[in-house]
Amino acid sequence: MKCVAKLVILCSVLACAPIFSPLAEATVSTTAPRNDYIGTNTTAVYNYTFKVFAATDLRVTQRGTANVETTLVYPTDYTVTGVGKATGGTITLTAGNLATSYALTIRFDRTPRQSTDLRNQGSFFPETHETKFDELTRYSQQNKDVLDRAVHLPETEAGTTAATTLPAAAARASKFLAWDSSGNVIAAAGTSANLGPVSPFINTLLDDTDAAAARATLGADIVQSYTKAGLPAAGIAGRLARVTDNIRGLWMDTGTQWVSLSSGELRVGDFGAIGDDSTDNQSALQAAIVAAQDFGQVLVLDNPRGIYRHSAPLVISKAITIRGSSGNRPRIKATNAAANNITIDMVSGVNTDFHLDGLTLDGGLNGIEIVPTTNGVYYDRFSSFRDLYIGNHANAGIKGTSGTGGSGQMIGSKHHNVVIQGGAYGFWFEGDDILGSVEWNGLRISGTTTAAVHLKETGANPWPNTRFVNPIIEANNKVGFDLYGVKVSLINPHFETNGSDAGPYADIRMDGDGSASCDVNVEGGYFSTSSANQSNVRIFFAANKMTLNISGSNAGAASIINANDKITSSSIQLLNNNNDFTVSNFSGGSFSNLNPGALSFRGGQLQSFLVGFVATAGNVTQHTVTALSSVADTIGLASKISGASTTLQNTPLVSNVVNFTTGVGILASNKHIVLFDVASQYDDQFSIMSAAVVRNSTGTALNVRPLLSSDNVNGTTRYRLALHFANATTDAAFLMDALGVSKYVYVTVQAWVR
After folding, report:
1. Contact 692, 748 (CB under 8 A)
2. pTM of the predicted protein model
3. What mean pLDDT is reported for the chain?
4. Facing residues of 560 across strands?
5. What is the pLDDT of residues 559-581, one digit of tens each?
6. CA-based nearest residue to 95, from 132, 51, 64
7. Is the peptide bond before 504 cis (omega within 30 degrees of 0)?
8. Would you state the pLDDT for residue 78?
């Protein structure tokens, strides 16, 4: 009995022995089951510091320097030691050392499962329970490691399904992850309609279809470099490239081909313009103008005899030079008679210059119109029109108006050799201080139906002095210069056969009906009326002070019509003019109502004559002298120029210290100087002289300058009139004894003769 009891007790003790076995070690760390390393190319063995239950419980990821992650495969890419140990173990990379700067991550990644079956009233196995508890803890740590690297809502936001649930795959395919105005997740196509709070500028960027369009939106001037042969196909107008061979430098895609910007010139032909008098070149010409403005290039019409038709105004909005081919004037032809040929409409807020050189402008409402501006743009002293022919326009050859405060002015510019034919006006300028201190040299206007030049100041003060040097105003139906409240100087003007329509009209019409006074100064020149209704000068409605100075001119039929007492002392002067100056309808027609000194004269006679030089069949120069003045011969040129004749006679080579009897001779020592013989030796016999070439068939543009020669002839001082001839372009001397067979030169000369 005792033995049986002992056996039962022993069995009970043995059965309960596990309860009293040593405690299992704590196998789960409080840290995340993860290790990270950066390679140094010195080892292939790396530790992991947490317990795993199988070699497959590890996830090993490698990231190279290209930032591409690769998940390594067990056991192909690595081997494992230390499975089941609480302190972890190692992995060994089968490919060898981890390369320098490569990243390696080892973390716990066990597939969740429950393979242990614990039954009711079964035996208690502590190690088995410990292992399962470790697994559960590791699962929690594994999930926490992933969640810590996920996107979260803020701690204080409760969150909703709409805020965290993605749209279905079909709804989010090829779209952006975005949030709407309520903060809920959406799939966005990339436009502001469904992208949420996007600025208008970003919206214009998001709908760009390629890099070129995006650069254009951003204003990014990214210039790529190519060889000439390697340039991409043309087709994106305005695109730039840098060429490293051939013509090195900047090139531009015109939309049809690449052109070099390094030569300083662009050619309209490169933009597809064809001067065939058939093709509408509107788009090509405007594109060429824009490109030349943007890149600071000279724009050349490269077909020297081309006729470039276009159907809408060509607009100049920035500084530019447009010129014809060398020695030619290609034609820009407007086919729309109701629109301008060229419109100048500057858009920048600074002084801007433009140059039109060597062109023919054919047709349009206005040949050139300078439109009003509102931003203080001034066309400064470097602007110029040079060697232009303007015709077949309906209104004005050149039209200009100013905006508020005088914006749109032309200040201090100089213009040369502009020919305007036909239309209602040659020039038409109106505005507040629009045209100041401008010089027009060699202007020629004919065939207008209203006025050759119409200038009107609308402000309170006259423009700064505008000069017209050697203008030729001829065969205009009504008025030559139509002037309202302006300050103008006419230097050696030539007026001929104007005013063919029933008048009264005038070569110069002054009107004070504007808000500013009118000041006109005439120096030299020639006036020839075509009808009894035509006056040389007429003054109308003098509401403000009028000042007229005429010196050294043959102007005669000057008249004041309907003037009032604003004409003050010495405001009307005819200096060195022997012709009548008449006044009518002045305060009831009474001459005595003029203020004292309102008309003043100075003694003397203006002599005007025409001298012609013609080369015979043997290339011998001959000359003729014809008086143009109506002054009696007793004080006329016949008594002042010895041997002058209206009949052609040979022009000899002469010496300045010897008398000659042919009236005119060519100075042997300087054959570009023509000398006139005189009958007497007064020191002031000739003065206030001017001269102008009126006919010339030599093929060389000429300038002529009058001189007063003082010479000792046989012991007596002689004062003689002389003419100096020079090439107008080069200023080189032009020899008068070699004109060329059948060539001729005619010059008008005006001189004050005592």
Report:
1. yes
2. 0.49
3. 75
4. 539, 583
5. 443 333 333 322 343 333 333 33
6. 64
7. yes
8. 96
Could you tell me the CA-to-CA distances from 599 to 483, 545, 572, 602 in Å, in that order? 21, 14, 5, 10
List, as one string, the DSSP characters of 358-385. Answer: EEEEE-SS-SEEE---SS--EE-TT-EE
The two beta strands, 368-370 and 526-529, are unpaired
Residue 352 has what DSSP assignment? B
Per the structure block, which two tokens stand in for 709? 């020669």
Rounded CA separation 435/415 (Å): 13
| Contact (CB, 8 A) for 281 and 309 | yes
Structure tokens that stand for 715 in this block: 């012991």
For 505, the 3-state DSSP assignment is strand
Q: What SS3 string covers 325-340?
A: CCCCCCEEEECCCCCC
| 395 band by pLDDT with thresholds 50, 70 and 90 | very high
Residue 524, both tokens:
């030299």
DSSP-derived pairing of the beta strands 451-457 and 479-484:
parallel
Distance CA(78)–CA(63), nearest Å, equals: 15
CA torsion 201-205-206-208 (nearest 10°) is 150
What phi-psi label fits residue 18: left (phi over 0), alpha (psi between -120 and 50 degrees) or beta? alpha
The 8-class DSSP code of residue 727 comes to E
Measured CA to CA, the distance from residue 580 to residue 558 in angstroms comes to 7
Please state, in angstroms and rounded to a whole number, the distance separating the CA atoms of residues 290 and 287.
5
Helix H or strand E segment including 294: helix 282-295
Q: For 46-83, how does the pLDDT look when each residue is reduced to its tens digit (9 = 90+)? A: 999 988 888 998 999 999 988 888 999 999 999 999 99
Give the helix/strand (H/E) hosting 404.
Answer: none
User: 517 near 546, Cβ under 8 Å?
Assistant: yes
Nearest-5° angle of CA 415, CA 416, CA 417? 140
Which tens digits make up the pLDDT trace of 576-623? 333 333 333 333 222 222 333 333 333 345 567 788 899 988 888 998
Contacts of 221 (CB under 8 A, 6+ apart): 215, 240
3-state secondary structure of 212: helix
Question: Could you tell me which residue, 609 or 31, shows the higher pLDDT?
Answer: 609
Contact of 72 with 37, CB cutoff 8 Å: no
Residue indicated by tokens 């995340």: 32
d(CA 464, CA 486): 8
CB 434 within 8 A of CB 463: yes
Provide the token pair at 701. 């543009």
For every residue of 542-574, which 3-state class applies, written as one string?
Answer: CCCCEEEEEECCCCCCEEEECCCCCCCCCCEEE
pLDDT for res 556: 45
| Measured distance CA(613)–CA(738) in Å, rounded | 11
C-alpha atoms less than 13 angstroms from C-alpha of 628 in its C-beta half-sphere: 23
pLDDT mean over 699-708:
86
User: What is the C-alpha to C-alpha distance for residues 288 and 270, in angstroms, rounded to an integer?
Assistant: 8
Strand order of the β-sheet with 89-93 is 45-48, 89-93, 78-81
Give the residue, 534 or 716, on which the prediction is more confident. Answer: 716
Which is nearest to 337 in space by CA: 366, 314, 365, 375?
Answer: 365
With CA atoms as reference, report the closest residue to 555 among 750, 753, 754. 750
Of 84, 88, 60, 64, which is closest to residue 74 (Cα–Cα)?
60
Amino acid occupying residue 212: A
Across 346-382, b (16+ Cβ under 10 Å) vs e yields: beeeebbbbbbbbbbbbbbbbbbbbbebeebbbbbbe
Domain boundaries, the chain: 24-111+132-143, 175-218, 442-603, 606-753
Write out pLDDT tens, residues 160-212.
877 778 888 888 887 878 888 788 888 877 655 555 556 777 777 777 777 77
Task: For the chain, state the CA radius of gyration.
Answer: 49
Pull the structure tokens for residue 228.
């000439």
Chain mean position to CA 572: 45
